Structure formats: structure tokens, C-alpha cells
Amino acid sequence: MSDPANHDPDHGFDAGTAPQQNPELAEIAELSKKGYQFLKENRTADAERNFRMILEKDGENNYALVGLGDAARKRGAHRDAVDHYKKCLIYHPGNNYALFGLADCYKALNQYQKAIEIWEQYLLHDNRNITVLTRIADAYRKVRDFRKSKAIYLRVLEMETDNPYALIGLGHLHYDFKEYRDALHYWQRMVEAQGDAVDIRVLTSIGNCYRKLKQFDMGVPYFEKALVKEPDNFYALFGLADCYRGTGDQAKSLEYWNRILDHDPRNKVILTRAGDAYRVMGDFGEASSYYERALNIEFDVYAVLGLATIARMQGRVQEATESLRKLVQNDGKNYRLHLELAHCYLASGEKRKAEETLQDFQRLGIRNPHIQELLARIQNP
Predict the structure, then answer these.
(1) Which of the residue ranges 2-6, 44-48, 212-216 would you say has the lowest mean pLDDT?
(2) What φ, ψ does residue 75 adopt, rounded to 5°?
(3) Which of 8, 128, 180, 380 has a C-alpha 20 to 30 A away from that of 251?
(4) How confident is the model at residue 123 (pLDDT cuts 50, 70, 90)?
(5) How far is the C-alpha of 147 from the C-alpha of 204, rounded, in Å?
(6) Which residues of 186-221 are buried (b: 16+ CB within 10 A; e: fewer)?
């Protein structure tokens, strides 16, 4: 089914009889036709004027009511659009265009359960409509109903092999549930089906799956292909920087962190990532500069952590310890703070305090391999 804004406004009028015999019907037909043309041209105010003129002559006109809903939806006034579509459905129950528009409005308002109910009403009239089926599957995905969402996406693929909306949806569905290998399967099918024409978001999504699987070298080519399509794409630059960080190539990661900062110099997350790269490379001056830039924007726990780590590595252990103890008090579930504080205690010869710091974290009921590994090394040197 097409979007209501694209349907033929003359459908429903007997072009051979009524408009010629009845001047009012002919005028309504012309107003409707122009109204929908205005919608296509994004002239929503002109479209609404035409549709209201129709309603002055015929208060129950389905084209005018749907048209007002479409115009409100184009303006982003989804609640107003809902009222117009509902009014149409009172007079014309089962009107496909009103049902479609109403469901899309509920989706835009994040009322996914209502959207599902409306789309399922539509399926009573046309249970093989791929557009509606994919929308229902998307809505079930949003409410995290894995089983129903997957079943409907697969039903679409049975009807149309390699349907892009179903493949993208299945990829996101499995990704949302941390099933990264399954997500890869569906997104890579899109690459096979579309080749170089594949959407850049599919390429970055595949790269992100490899990042999550910690197969960083496998992710690099997909982010690089994305950059060929769009050289300044944030997600591609971030993905490449993070992949090179994962492979231990800090200099290469810095190249991409700094490319992001060229366009967004006040991004404190990227400033701290770049600071981390300089720190790992041993350039403490540059690292400190980036951390301070982040803190000048607003407080950032990782910038403070980075500065504390540098302080410990430069022998200013007491300064680092005091800073970290304050951080742990405010962010007790952050394992990296406990880990670095333990390293500070070890550096000052306070083995017992280091052990207690790691055990305090474990008492929170959070299992972390890095905490467990350092605790084991302390207890079994």
C-alpha cells in the first residue's frame, strides 16, 4: 500500500458522470487534486486550505480528512494528524489511507502497541502487504518482542527474497539482543544483494558487529568503505578509530579521533579517547592537554581517570590516589576506577588496601574479568 499522500485524489469520483453533472462535486474533485499536489510540493498550508474548503461543502469527505492528517504529519504535528485520521475512520471505517497514516503517527509518538493494533486492522483487508508487515515487525522490535518481530520479518523474506527492509530489521533485531553473528548474516546479505550501492548505514552496522565481537581487524574494511561514500561520516571515523585502538595501533586510532575533532572540537568523549591514545603512547603532555580540554567543557570521569593514571605513572601516587578515591565514592560501579585505585595502592606498597578495593567492587555483585585477574595476581603472586 502506498502512503496516503501519494494516492490518486480523483479515485472515488465517477469522472464520466457526477463531476460534469454536479458543479459542487467537480469543484471538490479539483480542490482535492490540487490539495494533494500541494502536499507533494510540501506546500502544507496551501494543501490544508484546500482540504478545509472541501469540508465546508462536505464535512465527512474522506479525502479532505486524510489530506489534513497527511499535512499535519508532514509538519510533525502527529497528535493533530491522529485526530483527523480518527475522524475519517468514524465516517469511513476501514479506510486504508487513514489506517496507514494513523499507525505511522502512533509509531512517531513511540506508541508502538497502538501502531501494531492499527496495522493489524489493515492486514484484515490485505494480509500480504509487505510495507505494512515490515512496519509491524519494526514496531514489535521496538517493544522488544523478539519472537513476533522475527517471525514477521521472515514472512516478508518468504514473499520477497532479500527485501531490504526485512534484512535491515532482522540485523537490528539480532544486534539489539546482542546476537552479533546473526546480525552480520542479514546485513552481509544486503551487501551481497546490493554491492557498491548498499547503504552506508549497513556498512557501519557490519563494522560495529565486528567491534562488538572484538574482531577489530575484520571491521576496518567496512568502515573504510563507508568513508569512501562519505569522508566525514562520524560513525565510520569513530568505528575506525575504535578498531585501531582495539588492534593496539594507537597512532592510527589518533588519526581518526583527530579527524572527528576537526569537525567537532568540543566533543569531550572523543577528547578523552584521543587523550587515552596519547597516554598509551607515552606522550603524557599531549594526553594531559586533551584531558584538560575535555574538563574545560564539563566534568568527565574518564578525563579525571586519565589524569590520575598519568600522575601514578609519573610517580605522583598520592595525588592520583586522592583523586580516584573521590571518583569511586561517586561512581562505585565503574570497574576502571577500582582497578586504577588498586594499582595506585600497589605502587605505594599498600597491598592490603589494593585487595580490599577490588573486593569492595566484587561485593556489588558485578563480575569483571579485569578485577578478578588483578585480585588473583595479588592473592597468588
Answers:
(1) 2-6
(2) -80, -10
(3) 180
(4) confident
(5) 26
(6) bbbbbbeeeeeebbbebbbbbbbbbbeeeebebbbe
Hey, what amino acid is at 337?
A: L
Break the chain into its structural domains and give their ranges: 1-126
Share of the chain above pLDDT 70, in %: 94
- How far is residue 132's CA from residue 8's CA, in Å, rounded to a whole number? 19
Alpha-carbon gap, residue 32 to 65, rounded angstroms: 11
- SS3 state of residue 11: coil
Contact (CB, 8 A) for 242 and 211: yes
* CA neighbor of 303 nearest in space, from 293, 315, 311: 293
Stretch 207-213: mean pLDDT, rounded?
98
Is the predicted pLDDT of residue 4 greater than 90, yes or no?
no
C-alpha torsion 123→126→127→130, nearest 10 = -100
Among 110, 117, 47, 111, smallest CA distance to 84 is for: 47
The CA distances from residue 213 to 91, 144, 225, in Å, are 54, 22, 20
Q: At what angle do helices 44-57 and 62-74 cross, to 10 degrees?
A: 160
Q: What's the whole-number mean pLDDT along residues 2-11?
A: 40
- Contact, 3 vs 81, CB < 8 A? no
Residue 259 — φ and ψ, nearest 5°? -65, -35
Q: Enter the CATH code of domain 1-126.
A: 1.25.40.10
> What local confidence, expressed as pLDDT, does residue 121 receive?
86
What tens digit of pLDDT does each residue of 61-96 get?
A: 999 999 999 999 999 999 999 999 999 999 999 898
pLDDT of 16 over the 70 cut: no
pLDDT tens, position by position, 339-369: 999 999 999 999 999 999 999 999 999 999 9
Answer whether 181's CB lies under 8 Å from 213's CB.
Answer: yes
Residue 172 has φ and ψ, to the nearest 5°, of -65, -40
267: which DSSP letter? -
Type of residue found at 164: P
